[in-house]
Design goal:
Layout (H helix, E strand, L loop, with lengths): L13 E5 L2 E6 L9 E5 L8 H23 L3 H14 L5 E3 L1
Parallel strand pairs: 1-4
Antiparallel strand pairs: 1-2, 2-3
């Protein structure tokens, strides 16, 4: 059985907040010249909604950083991993719209 060739919207993704809406948005690219919503984060019990959005928004950076660590232990690889971890922890790139 072959693995499917999965792709995701290019990053960097950012948290977008408008009133009670919390989402994760991708930047403009050739397929979506105005950018687009990658995920809408549902408000549940507790106050984790925005924190959850930050984890989702950082996922493209985290994936790239981990892949980099698999092939290189150079200082630059660790810096990218630290930056991706920092992005996953609020506050980062919130876009209030």
């Amino acid at each position: 059985m072959t693995k499917p060739n999965l792709t995701h919207s290019p990053g960097p993704w950012a948290v977008a907040i408008k009133g009670s809406y919390v989402g994760v948005v991708a930047p403009p690219n050739k397929d979506y010249p105005n950018g687009h919503v990658v995920a809408q984060v549902c408000r549940g019990p507790g106050k984790n909604t925005v924190d959850n959005a930050h984890i989702l928004a950082a996922s493209t950076d985290l994936l790239a950083a981990l892949k980099g660590l698999l092939v290189s232990t150079a200082p630059g690889a660790y810096a990218k991993a630290r930056a991706a971890i920092a992005k996953a922890q609020p506050p980062t790139q919130e876009v209030r719209i």
